[in-house]
Write a structure and sequence with these properties.
This protein has three helices and no strands. It is mainly alpha-helical. It has one domain. The longest helix is centred in the middle third of the chain and has 93 residues. The chain is rod-shaped.
Length: about 150
C-alpha cells in the first residue's frame, strides 16, 4: 500500500475510533462501569494515530519531493539531449550556408567577366555584320522544339 493509501486507511480508522469515543464518552457520563477507562484508551490510540499520520505526511512530502526532483532531472536530460541535437543541426546549417555564400561570391565575381565577354561577342558579331535576330529567325524551328 502506498503512503496515500496508508493515510487514507489511518483517517478511516481515526474516524471510526472517534465515533466509538463519542458513544463511550456518553456512557462514561452516564456512569457505565469501565466506560471512562475505555474512552481514555480510545483517546490515547487516537493521539498515537495522529503522530503516525504526521510521520506519514512527512514521508509523503519527502516522496513527492523526490518524485518532483526525478521528473525535473529527466526533463533536464531531455532538454539537454534536444539542445545537443539542435547544435548538430545548427553546425550543418552553417556549413550549408557557407557553401551557398561561396557560390554567391563565385557567381558575383563571374558577373563582370560574363558581361564583358557578352559585349565582346556582340561587338565582334556586329563587325562581322551578323544580325543575331535575323540569323535566329532564318534558322527556323529546331528539332528540339525551340525556335
Amino acid at each position: 500500500m502506498d503512503i496515500r493509501g496508508k493515510i487514507g486507511a489511518l483517517d478511516t480508522l481515526v474516524a471510526d475510533l472517534d465515533a466509538d469515543f463519542g458513544k463511550i464518552s456518553i456512557d462514561a457520563v452516564a456512569g457505565v462501569p469501565q466506560a471512562s477507562k475505555k474512552a481514555a484508551e480510545i483517546n490515547q490510540r487516537i493521539e498515537r494515530l495522529a503522530v503516525d499520520r504526521l510521520i506519514l505526511n512527512r514521508a509523503l512530502a519527502r516522496a513527492q519531493s523526490a518524485e518532483a526532483a526525478a521528473r525535473e532531472a529527466k526533463a533536464e536530460a531531455e532538454r539537454r539531449e534536444h539542445f545537443d541535437i539542435a547544435k548538430g543541426h545548427a553546425k550543418r546549417l552553417l556549413a550549408a550556408t557557407r557553401r551557398v555564400d561561396a557560390a554567391i561570391a563565385e557567381l558575383t565575381a563571374a558577373l563582370p567577366e560574363i558581361a564583358a565577354e557578352e559585349l565582346m561577342v556582340r561587338q565582334n558579331l556586329r563587325h562581322a555584320r551578323v544580325d543575331l535576330c535575323r540569323a535566329h529567325r532564318a534558322d527556323g524551328p529546331r528539332s528540339d522544339g525551340h525556335r
